[in-house]
Amino acid sequence: MICLINIYSDIVIYVCAVDELLEAAKDNKPIDIDLWVKKGGVDVNTRHTLGWTPLMVAAVNGNVNAVKVLLELGADPNLKEEFSTVYHVAKLKHLNPIDGNKLV
């Protein structure tokens, strides 16, 4: 994943960190998850563009170790998805339903 870091904007750095946490959840990397939450300051219940939390991403990908560490870090297993279907929200936000990137 490529992250653009602007030293004058915490928002760009934070967005990058959120993306990294979500990718670590998807790729079953509990050490990276721990790092991004504890050292990177990313909210463990943050959501990606289409409304999933890192816990949802880890669970849907069957990543047991990632799920365990997210729960240990305080991930809320009772949060609900913020969309009716990924395709519906992607269409409304002009995003690719597979990766959440903007459609050109």
Using brief descriptors, characterize the structure shown.
48% helix; Serine Threonine Protein Phosphatase 5, Tetratricopeptide repeat; mainly alpha
Would you kindly provide a written description of the structure presented here, covering whatever features stand out?
With 104 residues, this protein is an all-alpha fold. It is built from 5 helices and no strands. Helix 3 packs antiparallel against helix 4. The chain starts with 9 loop residues before the first helix and ends in an 11-residue tail after the last helix. The model has no long low-confidence stretch (mean pLDDT 83).
What does the secondary structure layout of this molecule look like, with pairings?
Elements: H1 10-26, H2 30-38, H3 54-60, H4 64-72, H5 86-93
Helix pairs in contact: 1-2, 1-3, 3-4
Report the average pLDDT across residues.
83
Strand content: under 5%
CATH superfamily: Ankyrin repeat-containing domain
- Low-confidence runs: none
Structural class: mainly alpha
Care to count the β-strands? 0
Count of the domains: 1
Question: How far is the N terminus from the C terminus?
Answer: 20 Å
Number of helices: 5
CATH architecture: Alpha Horseshoe
| Radius of gyration using CA atoms only | 14 Å
Order of helices and strands: HHHHH
Q: For this structure, what is the CATH class?
A: Mainly Alpha
- Quaternary state of this entry equals single chain
Q: What general form does the structure show?
A: globular
The description of the largest β-sheet is:
none
Helical percentage: 40-55%
What name does the CATH topology carry? Serine Threonine Protein Phosphatase 5, Tetratricopeptide repeat
